[in-house]
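Per-residue structure
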Amino acid sequence: MERIKKEIEPKSNEIVVDMEDVRLGFGEKIVLKRVNLKLKRGENLVILGRSGQGKSVAIKCIVGMLTQDEGSVKVFGDEVSEKNETELKELRTRIGFLFQSGALYDSMSVRENLEFPLTRVLRMREQDELDKNVDEVLEAVGLKDAIDKMPSDLSGGMRKRVGLARTLIVKPEIMLYDEPTTGLDPITSREISELIMQMQKKYKTSSIIITHDMECARITADRILVLDNGEFIAEGSYKELESSDKKIVRSFFK
């Protein structure tokens, strides 16, 4: 796995996501107190935090699913909260969001699940072009033989792979992973973590990965942020944070 990381091209200094002093609450509950986050182009950034600390809320602000009460959220240099619905739809074509469940359409085959974003988002109509894109991304995630299967016929790991393929098929510049290995056995979790690395290399994506899986964090992270009580309390590499002087940070690595 270390070999894969070393083969990836050096990270750019370009900032593709920039959150500054973001505050967001729901009623009297303040979920994000003062969040600052920068994602560089080509970087894998892992966010660690206990349940209910606002990790998913933070990445939903990036795609405009939620709007902060205070502060700034810029993606590709533009303030997300200032975009109208048309501009948000255009932004979301450049951002892939992989949900915990994989979010496949159960009534559609694998092929149909992958064709759906091509026809709806990219407006592709030619079957030859659809077939080429579907075959390419299924080969990338190692599931070419599953093309005509239904989601109910797939294992949890296979569903995750198809979900990743469906997200990647529109070639997003940014990938947002929400607990990508949840519910998987250790071997399959490692396979998905390694696949995230391979897809970063192949598609040159910039990624934010929310995870409780420390092996996933170890494999995928260029940099880790630790979120606690609505604020980032630590930042660094896996090795740096593993020996942090903060007990709450070290607790993730036990």
The first strand starts at residue 15 and ends at 26. Residues 1-10 have pLDDT under 50 and may be disordered.
